[in-house]
Amino acid sequence: MFLKVKVLPNAKKEEIIKKAEDSFEIKVKEKPENGLANKRVIEILSSYFDIPKNKIRLIKGAKERNKIFEIIN
Known about the structure:
Elements (H helix, E strand, L loop, with lengths): L1 E7 L6 E6 L2 E5 L8 H14 L6 E5 L5 E6 L2
Parallel strand pairs: 1-3
Antiparallel strand pairs: 1-5, 2-3, 4-5
């Protein structure tokens, strides 16, 4: 399954907003440096879907706000 995620780094509080069945907006406190925001997004998605972090892979958009993640079954 593929997820479209818009990441908003440097947010005051963290939250996940479901826009559509496969589309999310995620606010994270981390800065977009050295992949810190991406790692935090993976942690948040892992918690949201109740799956291990190693089942979530960043496919596209490592240095962009709009990203595509894959959830591996």
